[in-house]
Amino acid sequence: MKNMNFAVSILLIIISSCVSFYGGIQYQQSKSPARQYAGRMGSRFNGADAQGGQNNARFRGNFINGEVIKKDEKSLTVKLSDGGSRIVLLTASTSIMKSDEGSAGDIEIGKIVMINGEANSDGSVNAQMVQLRDGNLPSSRQAQE
Fold first, then answer.
1. 60 vs 9, more confident
2. Separation CA 50–CA 37 (nearest Å)
3. What is the pLDDT of residue 58?
4. N or C: the chain end with fewer CB closer than 10 Å?
5. What distance in Å separates the CA atoms of residue 127 and residue 123, rounded to the nearest whole number?
6. What is the pLDDT of residues 42-53, one digit of tens each?
7. Angle at CA 78, nearest 5°, toward 102 and 97?
8. Contact by Cβ (8 Å): 106, 98
9. CATH code for 61-144?
10. Residue 51's closest CA among 60, 63, 42, 61?
11. Is the dihedral of CA 6, 9, 15, 19 positive or negative?
């Protein structure tokens, strides 16, 4: 009988240890820096949070990545990776950058751009900086990392 109680006790200790270990792993994964960053930032690029609503003002409109689909002297329309689009207003103080300093004339339809600026109440963005990018848009996963 003593051997049976001893075996049951050992078995319960092993099961308890396994459950505790698994619980600790799950807890740590929920606190990992990458997950915390993704949770805070989620889809907040382009001015919306993961639920599709407007996020708070300090993130609104900061960075836009996309393809230029329309251009005139004072604005661009950029197609976003989620299929939406954003109007970007160019001003005299907007920096246009590529490998070296560029100008608004360097922006062409079909080019990939990254834009930093202030969001307006109508959803457009006043560009502070437009960077001409080579290659494809970053995926949603790359943007969150």
1. 9
2. 13
3. 41
4. N
5. 12
6. 444 444 444 444
7. 15
8. yes
9. 2.40.50.140
10. 42
11. negative
